[in-house]
Specification:
Elements (H helix, E strand, L loop, with lengths): L20 H9 L3 E8 L8 E7 L17 H14 L2 E7 L1 H7 L1 H17 L7 E6 L10 E4 L7 H24 L5 H4 L5 H10 L17 H10 L1
Parallel strand pairs: 1-4, 4-5
Antiparallel strand pairs: 1-2, 2-3
Helix pairs in contact: 2-5, 3-4
């Protein structure tokens, strides 16, 4: 009778859950360029979806790096500066609310991720590369890639991409709040908070709102009704 053997770990099933564990597993077995890919902004009612692709050099992991959602704003911004200064390559892509409505949020997210990867690849050497994609949805392309659920808490490259995308999108929404006042974009960044939903009901959707999203589509007639009342 054979003894029970401990199952072998794959490249992406690691014994620990620390940032960089995926990279450590890969680097033990082969020399390869790694590109981490993540997006920010699938859930909001307004604003673009933003994707970032980041390739960090070697075993470099910025101090304090983690899933951007778990970091304070000041920490994210400090990491953004450090990653921007030290990454081998960074790519960023925006897809507008109009495009999200046209092709749906999942397809928009995947399209933005592919565009970000294409940008990042332009500054990387032509050698074997693998894209580590946060989540469970593969990009619809022939690139070598691996989806990793919770990847922004395991892969340093994905975590770096999440920080880049989050800081850029937040800054974009804060700037948009100047031109589209009354919605509170500077506070909730377009997410469906109670304050934001009430503003949509009162003011009607603006050009940044995703017209196919629940919470917005029910109020598409508000602005036209108000305009009619003012005539």
């Amino acid at each position: 009778m054979t003894k029970n053997r401990r199952p072998e770990l794959s490249l992406f099933a690691t014994p620990d859950e620390e940032i960089g564990c995926i990279e450590r597993s890969l680097e033990l077995q082969q020399s390869i360029t790694i590109i981490g890919v993540d997006e920010v902004g699938r859930g909001p009612l307004a604003g673009p979806v933003v994707a970032a692709a980041v390739s960090l050099p070697g075993a470099y992991v910025p101090h304090g790096l983690n899933d951007s959602k778990k970091l304070k704003k000041s920490t994210r911004e400090n990491l953004y500066s450090e990653i921007s200064a030290n990454a081998s390559s960074i790519g960023v892509s925006f897809l507008s609310a109009e495009e999200i409505d046209r092709i749906n949020i999942l397809n928009a997210s995947l399209k933005a991720m592919m565009q970000a990867v294409e940008q990042a690849e332009q500054n990387l050497p032509q050698e074997p590369a693998i894209c580590l994609v946060d989540g469970n949805q593969r990009m619809p392309c022939a690139r070598r890639q691996q989806t990793i659920v919770g990847g922004d808490g395991k892969s340093s490259n994905i975590a770096a991409a999440s920080v880049i995308a989050k800081v850029i999108r937040d800054a974009w929404m804060e700037a948009a709040a100047v031109f589209y006042s009354g919605y509170g974009f500077e506070k909730h960044k377009g997410y469906g908070t109670e304050e934001h939903r009430e503003a949509i009901k009162k003011l009607g959707p603006c050009a940044l709102h995703r017209k196919t999203f629940a919470g917005v589509k029910e109020n598409l007639s508000v602005s036209s009704r108000k305009e009619h009342e003012q005539v």
